[in-house]
Amino acid sequence: MDVNAELVRADYAWHYRKYSKNASLQRLEDEAKMARRGLWVDPNPVPPWEYLKGRRISVAIPGSITGGIVSLAQITNAENPLPVQAVYHGNVKSQKFHRPSCSVYDCKNCTAVFRNREDAINAGYEPCRMCNP
Q: What predicted TM-score, i.e. pTM, was given to this entire model?
């Protein structure tokens, strides 16, 4: 039994294309996305590798005491100690925000992270013209 294929088929795992060119796993993941099953029920699922990147940078939260930027480690729920998931990165210099698929998503000035489009806009950021988040 191929455990990787079974996990992807059951919609419990991502196919990490950067290190795997397995067409079968990609097909299984695409089928799961189209059917919106398992982890694909979430309208904005965050890949684990992007989530982990987000844990190392700041998160912009409108109205926070620190002027909108707080550490991801500070944003926890008392019942769930895991930090919120980041969806968009904001460039603190240009005040533009990007989706994970954007080529400049991980730029050196993209140190603000937003949970959703509305949070980014409310914090004064504009959508990137390339990825149009």
A: 0.41
